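Priority: medium. Attachment 1 of 2:
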């Protein structure tokens, strides 16, 4: 069952518009990053401070029914704040890749597992590699696995 609570749209207009288009069309529209043609998914978390529902489009990095969630934020010096929501409640997350959101559990990856998913992520969205060069922080990669 999707997360319950009061939805607080992103302060970034392009982001909240993408979420609106994606959700209102069941993933038929608003499902790529601008005109790149590269697919996105919509991740829903619960604000770890506000308790509000937050929706975050991310590039779609899928393999065998699992997804990598890459906290790149364009290579900015700090993690995107949704990172803290995932850390605070790893099982209070959904990933929408199509008509319906999927309940998932997330865990932050490290070592060889992270390396394998990072390779998939860069293959799906090459700018991730540039973002990592742009920042000192290691860009976090979470694995989102469907809950039974
Ligand atoms: N961002 C990525 O990091 N990786 C991607 O692959 C990616 C792809 C992508 C594709 C399409 C698109 O439209 C956007 C895409 N983005 C991608 C951008 C992504 O959707 C986010 O906008 C971006 O990562 C920044 O996330 P953010 O959570 O830092 O956003 C800020 C601006 C935000 O929403 N802040 C809110 C606010 O009111 O200022 C608060 C959000 C929040 O979760 N607050 C928590 C709460 O309790 O409510 C507290 C969080 C805390 O602990 O501080």
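Attachment 2 of 2:
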């Amino acid at each position: 069952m999707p997360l319950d609570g009061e939805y607080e749209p992103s302060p970034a207009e392009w982001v909240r518009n993408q979420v609106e288009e994606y959700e209102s069309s069941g993933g038929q529209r608003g499902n790529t990053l601008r005109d790149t043609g590269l697919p996105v998914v919509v991740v829903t978390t619960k604000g770890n401070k506000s308790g509000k529902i937050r929706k975050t489009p991310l590039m779609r990095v899928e393999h065998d029914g699992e997804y990598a969630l890459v906290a790149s934020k364009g290579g900015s010096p700090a993690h995107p704040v949704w990172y803290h929501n995932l850390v605070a409640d790893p099982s209070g997350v959904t990933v929408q890749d199509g008509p319906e959101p999927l309940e998932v559990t997330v865990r932050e990856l490290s070592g060889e597992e992270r390396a394998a998913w990072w390779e998939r992520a860069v293959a799906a969205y090459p700018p991730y590699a540039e973002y990592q060069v742009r920042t000192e922080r290691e860009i976090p990669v979470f694995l989102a696995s469907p809950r039974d």
